[in-house]
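BUG: 3D viewer hangs when loading the predicted structure for this chain

Environment: internal workstation, default settings.
Expected: structure renders.
Actual: progress bar stalls at 90%.

Input used:
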Amino acid sequence: GRTVRSELPRAITAVRPLTRLSLVELSRTQADVQNTEKVELNLQTGRVRAEVRPVAGGRTEFTVRSSAATASVRGTIFEFDTLNLLVREGTVEFSGTKGAPVLVDSGRASYAEESTGQAVPPEEILVTELKPDLPVGVETTLSSQASPEVTIDFSVNVGF
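C-alpha cells produced before the viewer hung:
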C-alpha cells in the first residue's frame, strides 16, 4: 500500500492504508491580530502521522480523536493509531476517555489503557521498558554486591 497525503491548513496528515478518518471541524478565526486555525479529525481505525506547524503570528489547534483517546497539539509531529501515541517532535496533550490528560514530549510514547480508560503517563512506560521481568526464581531484593555495568544498544523503526 502507499501513503496518501492530504494538506490541511498548516498541517500535513499522512494516512496509512486501511485507515478510516473523517474531518469533524476545519475553521479559522481571527481575534485582534492573531489567527487561530482549528482542525479536528475522527480516527475510527488505522493510523495517521500528523505534522502540525503553527501559523506565523497565530496558532493551529489540531486534534485527533478516537473512541478510546484524544491527541491535541499546537505544533508538533506525532503518530496515533486510536490507542497508542508516539511523539516525534514537540509536545502532545493526550487523554483517554477518563482521567486527566498527560503531556507527552518528543521521543516519548503513551497509550490509552482500555480497561480503565486512562492515558498512561510516558514516565510509566519508560520505567516498564527499562525494567524487564526477572526470570522465574530470581530474587527481587537487591544484593549488597556491585553488579557489572551493562550497555544495551537498541533501535526502533517505525515505517511510513
